Structure prediction request, 185 residues.
Amino acid sequence: MSEILIYGPGAFSINEKNNGKFVRYVKELNEFKKRVLTEDYLMIIIDLERRNRYGISAAEFAREIPRQSLTRIIFLCQNHDYELEAFHRVHCYDYMIKPLSPQDMLKLVSLCMQRLSRKTDDGTIVFQAGQKKYKLKRGDICFIESIGRKIRIVTPESSIKAQYFPLNDFLGQYGQYFIKIHRSI
Prediction:
């Protein structure tokens, strides 16, 4: 699984060579649609240069797919022409004005990945429920259950309903500590 999908004409070069397996870079709409249908992403970046409304339409397409409905989408554009549409129609995470240097783009990607990270270095996992964050020891988690648009984390002392994330993504990070016993548990 790639963590970030970048869709755009290739005006600047952030690609797999720059960031290993974590970034997938596509230039064509058909390839974008194929990727969002078959792969999970934590973040989608859409460069609106020469795509104009096609970028907005691509983001709307991604939003219709259940696995991508909560994916953070960031738009890059040379002006504010589509900003209102991006926020109101697509509910994007951010809308950034170009030019962005490759270094600025890598900083943005790094910052977003840090914010999306659910893992800490001390053997704990951080879950977010609304504005509150819960830091739980891996060994204290009995099971995690996907219920509609929420995740329920059960420990011996409590049950916490947190923001949804795909269980397969969770297993990608913590598969050595947990096993999947059901498609939703």
Notes: The first strand starts at residue 4 and ends at 7. Confidence is low (pLDDT under 50) at residues 15-20. The two ends are 20 Å apart (CA to CA).
